[in-house]
Amino acid sequence: MLTIDWRTLYDAKDVLLAGMSITFQITAVAILCGLALGTVLAVLSLSPYRLLRNGAQAYVALFRSIPLVMLLLWFFLIVPQFLKALFDLPSSIDVRLISALVAYSLLEAAFFCEIIRAGIGSLPRGQMYAAQALGMTPMQAMRYVILPQAFRAMVPVALTQCIVIFLDTSLVYVIALGDFFRRMTAIGERDGTLIPMLLFAGATYWAVSTTLIATTRLIQTRWAR
Amino acid sequence: MIELKNVTKWYGPFRVLNGCSTHVAKGEVVVVCGPSGSGKSTLVKTVNGLEPIDAGEIAVAGVSVDNKHTDLPKLRAKVGIVFQHFELFPHMTVEQNLVLPQVKVLRRDADEATAKAVGLLERVGLRMHVDKYPGQLSGGQQQRVAIARALSMDPLAMLFDEPTSALDPEMINEVLDVMVELAQDGMTMMCVTHEMGFAKKVADRVVFMDRGAIVEDAPSDAFFAEPESQRAREFLAKILH
Predict the structure, then answer these.
(1) Are A25 and A100 in contact (CB under 8 A)?
(2) Interface contacts A/B by beta carbons within 8 Å
(3) pLDDT tens-digit profile of B154-168?
């Protein structure tokens, strides 16, 4: 019962690769948008203006305290209607994918915000003083002096977070989006081989994560001159 | 050049600066000394607005520092400051440390900024280290780069906040030599330092602070010959051996 039917897997390879492509799309978009929005949030949360600061902190607190599954379901229920109402979308576009991309990006922004804030916090206060003393505006100081150093300091934590994102994408299961995991279970359910298929899916996630971790280790040791 | 009038600052319930008034004329070298916790570092940092003040007035070259409408970045670009812990940017080479502020703040073109940077590094004896990162230099070398970086902005005046306190003893002189040369070239300087040898050699005036207040403000000859206050006499007795 636990033997894997390699023939079935081979036959389904196109479907599975398409699923893996969706998994990677969500991961990549979540990382890029999360990092961009997270940086903005981190800078806002350190702003001298209380309104901006509180707004950024409220955002982070909100997104960090909602279970991801619930977030996905909400976005699945809200975003498609919203998008359809806003732009007259053709029905061929998979709104599930779009709602997943939006949900993951907004959520990861909150996590990256905290990671970047910790990175900024790890720098000596004098760096900001020195930049401003040279006549840089607070934005210039952030851009040229603080953020480049903060990004370097946060690389290990951020890479870990990227792998967490990759693994968490499997939760799109709940909105019936055909990522790698969803498609594996579909095949398993169809053929009555759910357990071997789940094991194979798990092994695949393990292999990809391990490769990513090994690659990041390699990059880090190269960087650390 | 630098005017301070009744400068007062509170950290919560603690008054760090208590009605401090002094001035630094163009080309003058003023040394600020006093026991630790007396507010000397805070006082120099108020001059370029790094430490906001609660009362009093500060003007640099006629421009008010504590006025809300003053363009502080523009003013700060004209006042160099050297910190105790150097504060070079560790992710940039020595050359980039000197070039970036010139390009981004003064809008100089890259070639002009680089030429200026190399010239100044030559002057502080570090020409051969342009492509190194600050972490690869000794403390004394880093502090000399920090002085060169401040000078690259063509400042009207230079502030020094205990520039030699974080250095190993054998590196103090290489930094002081650069400062002495700068003073002799006629730079307007306000230096917080415990180096009384430096003060005797180049200072025009010495400002002695205690508990946030300026206790004595005298020509350096007079200050070292016979300080007026008991507190300054005790301080000198402890620091000079």
Answers:
(1) no
(2) 58
(3) 999 999 999 999 999
The rounded distance, in Å, linking the Cα atoms of B128 and B126 is: 5
| Distance from C-alpha of A168 to C-alpha of A170, rounded to nearest angstrom | 5
Spatial separation of the C-alpha atoms in residues A181 and A19, rounded to whole Å:
8
- Binned at pLDDT 50, 70 and 90, residue A93 comes out as low
B63 touches chain A (CB under 8 A): no
Determine the distance in angstroms separating the CA of A217 from the nearest CA of chain B, rounded to an integer: 21
Residue A92 in this model has a pLDDT that exceeds 70: no
Spatial distance between the Cα atoms of B1 and B155, rounded to a whole number of angstroms:
12
The residue type of B238 is: K
The answer to whether the beta carbons of residues B97 and B134 sit under 8 Å apart is yes
Cα-to-chain-centroid distance, residue B174? 16
Q: State the ipTM, two decimals.
A: 0.89
Measured between CB atoms, does B77 come within 8 Å of chain A? yes
Q: Any idea which residue has 């207040």 for tokens?
A: B213
Residue B133 has pLDDT above 60, yes or no: yes
Q: Give me the sign of the Cα torsion angle B216, B217, B221, B222.
A: negative
At A56, the amino acid letter reads A
- Give yes or no for A127 touching B (CB within 8 A): yes
Written as one string, the DSSP assignment of A60-123 is HHHHHTS-HHHHHHHHHHHHHHHHHHHS---TTS-HHHHHHHHHHHHHHHHHHHHHHHHHHHTS
For residues B160 and B176, the answer to whether their CB atoms sit within 8 Å is no
Rounded to two decimals, what is the model's pTM? 0.84
Q: Does B87 contact A149 at a Cβ distance shorter than 8 Å?
A: no
